[in-house]
Amino acid sequence: MCGISGIVYEDPAAIIDRAQLIAMRDCMTYRGPDDAGLFIDGPVGLGHRRLSIIDLGGGHQPMSNEDGSLRIVFNGEIYNYRSLREELKAKGHQFQSQSDTEVILHLYADRGEACVHALNGMFAFAIWDAHRRVLFLARDRMGVKPLYYAVTPKAFLFASEIKAILTSGMVSARCRDEAVAEYMLFRQVAGPESLFEGVMNLPPGCTLTLYNGKPRIARYWSSRPAADRPRISYDDARQTLTDLLHDSVNMRLISDVPVGTFCSGGVDSSLVTALASRIKGDRVNTFSIGFDEPEYDESAFALMVSKQYGTIHHQLTIGNAEFSDLFPQMVWQNDEPLNFANSVQIFALSRLAKQHVTVVLTGEGSDELFAGYPRYRIPGMARIYRQVPGVLRRLAKLWGSVTRDHRVAKLDRYAACSPMETLLYNSSMLHPDVVAAVYPQVLESHLDYRRSCLVGSENLGLDDLDRVSLLDQECFLVSILNRQDKMSMAASIESRVPFMDYRIVEFANRLPAAYKLRGGTGKAIVKDVARAFLPVETVDRRKSGFGVPLDRWFRSNLGMGERIAALPEQAASDLFDGKALRRLVEEHRAGTHDHSELLWTVLNFQTWKQTFHC
């Protein structure tokens, strides 16, 4: 787990500015506090910060092959590197270290750009091929590891984080205004373009080859299943998933430093903890976070799992004031506005974990693969709801208003939409009409990338649930994984995500939707796997979502409450309607309405603009 960066000038006579390259590299020191390296060859420069996980004494980067014709900077872990190493040794390759980095280098020498097909892991790497004068970049299949780049009139730049590209001074921090509407609706910008003008991200499952200053992007893997999916019985599917998860967790326990788990008390992280404890056979360090507000506090369930498996459990409680203090730093760490408030929790938990371990396993990704979110039921329910008499719909809408159940309101809104729009907006945090109250331009949004993802799944014989799941994997999940990476790396902790093993992703996307959503229960097959390992209370309870009590904190007179009270004056601009925003803040703080979702979104965007001077 590391931070990588680099510059390649188009002019072959150009010379890399060493200080500039060091500045790019060292603005991410937290990603790699254990070691640092540079490689400069005329117009080419590579930078690397290392968090040592495998082969602690070796593995210095940038790493070269025997004759120095290849140089690599690598961020991530290759979990099958040992078997690949043996294959390469059998072909005559000679290794100087025990690191997985050197395996990638030799694999590239052996197979060229096709090397990525053999890798099982999370990775973002760059290889400078001096013989071919080519820079080769690759990102893992699901986008667990971030990788950004920019093309300027003079040079190509890349880095693990956007701030490193900005630090070069060759790209200015400017907001891409046409992406603001998408952020306001979904709290993330999907596709290859970021919220910064001119800064791109290499899509998951893709490679980029730079030759003569021209980048060529190629996709080597897709999560979309084939149209002719083989049938499998539910019992066989459950056993296969059990075996895949066991193997995935086992692979992700490979480490030369201590490993623990984030165990929130939810079914996914608890299942990962149970499997890790059984495989390791000794006491695992587990970490969870709690709140003073009982409805947000999952710590009791985390303790159940810890007690059953005898883990060494560490718990942290975070309150309004500490959350508020950490919030601006987390926006900076994330490069873009935060999507969810629990990003702050992940950092706080990572900071605690760093006192005991260097690697943690987490449960991210299960919801998007196996229909774990309640909103996955909305497309199917919307079809039924459209047939309900008007009087019953009005009663349902009133019930949703009284109970403040946003899902009822969402169902009512999207029942009036076309089927395509219902799928498109399923993962939106806010409805366009809600956002338009403070940001009228949202109604002009076209969301072309998201629409193209939906169109791409049209002819695969999938039902609505599967198509929403795939859309989330290609958009929403990427931001969740990047959030996990950046928040944990801010504390110099490596996060590993067993559910993101590409074999599990491919398997999940071949399963019938009925195996995921059964009797109104999402993630049904995962829960059935978990019943063999976990207390029933942790499996069958209502999903809580690792939430944060923002609605209450925004009404307080300290911490986040102070930030919200000051928001109307700070955010009033050509983008936001300050008067409307002031009204919403007053209504929320008076307790007559809950506008916390919209206020959190605006606060994040405004804090991001101030932090990066956009």
Report on this structure.
α6 (234-251) packs across α21 and α9 crosses α10 (342-353). 43% of the residues lie in helices and 15% in strands. The longest helix is centred in the middle third of the chain and has 18 residues, at 234-251. The radius of gyration is 24 Å and the shape is globular. The strands form three sheets. The chain has a six-stranded antiparallel beta sheet. The chain is an alpha+beta fold.
Topology:
Layout: E1 2-9, H1 18-26, E2 35-41, E3 44-50, E4 63-64, E5 70-78, H2 81-90, H3 100-111, E6 121-129, E7 134-139, E8 148-151, E9 155-159, H4 162-167, H5 180-186, E10 200-201, E11 206-211, E12 214-219, H6 234-251, E13 259-262, H7 267-280, E14 285-290, H8 299-309, E15 312-317, H9 320-334, H10 342-353, E16 359-361, H11 366-370, H12 378-385, H13 390-403, H14 406-415, H15 419-424, H16 432-436, H17 448-456, H18 464-474, H19 476-489, E17 494-496, H20 502-510, H21 524-530, H22 536-540, H23 550-553, H24 560-571, H25 578-590, H26 596-612
Parallel strand pairs: 13-14, 13-16, 14-15, 16-17
Antiparallel strand pairs: 1-3, 1-9, 2-3, 4-5, 5-6, 6-7, 7-11, 8-9, 8-10, 11-12
Q: Keyphrases for this structure?
A:
614 residues; alpha+beta; six-stranded antiparallel beta sheet; 17 strands; globular
